[in-house]
Amino acid sequence: MPDGWHKAFATLWLGNLITGMGYSMTMPFVSLFIADLGHYSKFEISMYSGLAFAVTFITQAIMSPIWGSLADRKGRKLMCLRASGVMALTISLTGLAMNAGYIVLMRAIQGCFSGYINNATALMAGETPHRKSGWVMSQMMTASTAGNLIGPILGGALSSFFGNLLGGAWGYRVPFFITGFLMAMVFLATLLFVHEDFKPVKKAEMRPMKDIMATLPNLQLIIVMFVTTMLVQSANMSIDPIVSLYVKSMMPGAQNIAFIAGVVAATPGLGTLAASSYIGHKMDQIGPLKILRLGLLAGALLFVPMAITHSPWALAAWRFLLGMASAGMMPAAQTVLTLNTPPESFGRIFSYNQSFQAMGSVIGSLLGSGISGIFDYATVFWVTGATLLINFALVLIFQRKNS
Q1: In the chain, helix, strand, coil percent, each to 5?
Q2: What is the predicted pLDDT for the residue at 204?
Q3: What is the pTM (predicted TM-score) of this model?
Q4: Keyword set for this entry (predicted)?
């Protein structure tokens, strides 16, 4: 391994963990925070909450290619510093919000400058020998997944504690301040402990993206991975907003719905954590495309029992298995990109991938809410499973055409 590789990996892994934790520690409670900021109607609270969620991904999709171009000229470490520094500032300022519009504005700014996890992943992809790429991509995903698991529990505990201690909206404000402080620590750790073997490139010497795309040995493969990222993220986001409501529909009149819904929501992350290291090593042995095909097919099939079950505990068990399958989806797609992208184009290719991921988040959340509103919750699972099956067919067709 290159000198300083393990220190950089540990720092960026921890940065991904805190970034994932910071997001999930604050976002689930934004609607409650907004409700405490004024006399908003139920419709207004829903509208502002939806805007606060979606606007980040929309601005992220627009800005990612611009930051990717800068990353290829200045390096991925600078992009990690930019993302963590602005996130520390905007999240802290969100804690000072006096109205809902201010929160939406801060979320939009945060989306414009976001990208720590993707740039940290791209940095490690560039610094890691190809024989270790699969394991490293899996571990970087594990960090953000673990953060997403810890965040809601920690955020809920902090909100309750400080709400009782200080009263009013302070219960929701304090987690924003704590997250801002942690992101400032991520900024300092990245600055001090991460070394990137990168030589700055002048703008005039940068090859245009269309020229790079034209010379890629597997352009079709890169595009298929972009689409895979979008569809997998869409599949994740279509289910997350309706899981608790689906659990509630299975348990009419139950008293502990919130706890059980929390368990059901957390199980995919636990499955991913349990399987990621093994699947990462397997990816390095047999290749990421085989793992990707298996992950997509397994994920599509697992949505069938989830759509027909009437037990929240059975749903939790199936979602745990889905989390294990997910460990072979997004990391596999990122590994394929790593192995088929020249080093001078890493920043831009991964930024385009981030844009597709952001588009998947917007599409998935709209798809899940729209389908459940028109039909029922089970239909969301059927449609999501079909989406992954289409993705599996797409990858299979590409491989057969190019084998």
Answers
A1: 85, 0, 15
A2: 63
A3: 0.76
A4: Cell membrane, Membrane, Transmembrane, Transmembrane helix, Transport
